[in-house]
Amino acid sequence: MGIFSNLFKKKFETITVEAARELQQQGTLLFDVRETGEFKSGHAAGARSLPLSSLRTRFERELPKERDLLIICQSGARSAQACNFLASQGYKVTNVSGGTAAWRRAGLPIS
Length: 111
Fold this sequence. Notes:
Layout: E1 13-15, H1 17-25, E2 29-32, H2 36-40, E3 48-49, H3 55-62, E4 68-72, H4 77-88, E5 92-96, H5 99-105
Parallel strand pairs: 1-5, 2-3, 2-4, 4-5
């Protein structure tokens, strides 16, 4: 890959919902980037809402840069977009694979 290898290197990790729940229970913050209506219809217990549509205008005020952050959506696609953006801004973020759908399937708590 040569000089272009850094362009294609992912700047965040992806973990399972079970691993995300363990980290959350240890104090890692979980942010749900689905839209407000989706969030209100049921979300991973303890998750905070920060819709992808408003992420660029709210992240500096609402996300602590000194903390590790977990990012979740419905399936993992929007959270990966959010992770790409946040990692480019210097945040340490981890994408939750499978999103809220996988969280539900795993029987993890929903609020």
